[in-house]
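Researcher: Re-running this chain for the archive, since the previous output was lost when a drive failed. Same request as before.
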Amino acid sequence: MKKCILGLSILLASVQMFAKPVIKFKSMFVDFGEVESGQMVDVNFEFENAGSDLLIIKNIVPSCGCTTAGLAKKEYKAGEKGTIASKFNTSGYNGKVIKTITVTSNDAETAEVRLTFSGTVLIKDFAQADLKPERIDFTAVAVGKTYTRKLNLSNSGTNDLRIIEVSCSPEVSLQFKTNLVGAKKTTEITLNFTPFAKGAFNNLVKIRTNDYRNPYIFIRLEAESD
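Model: Regenerated structure tokens:
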């Protein structure tokens, strides 16, 4: 009888020794396809405790603040299934997006798992600025004399293009026919340059617009005064 009890104890000890939790995901990657910017995307990762001991999810950390992730509970018995439910806020994104969620658990073999989801965020309505020319070379100029050039600012987008701010040196001034360029329209900009001192002039004019993808457009100015 004592031998039977001893054998049973050894067997139970062996089972406990080899018992372990195993986190197994149905898929570690989710492609949410194409969505319009501003939408909230639901991304779910299903998993199972494929081991023989209690699985404990210790932490879930999304790669950025645009993603949230949660669980109904943190402990899962052997064979029990669960889902990490995450939401991705697409506001402010345009184009291909790749995000990750890091999951840590008491699975000794895979203590840390990195889940990935990906997709394309599209902006349907937008303004798109195109300025020509982007570079002006006045070559030889005289101090105190004003030089004028014409530029064309086009909006190839679907929303109105709005001029928000202009940054330039004191030698340069810009005159706009309008600060609002309609979709598929073009406006003319007059640039005046008056050199104040002799020598080489190399400077950038910066124009900020509501072009979502490229808010800043630049004009490079070059001149040589004697």
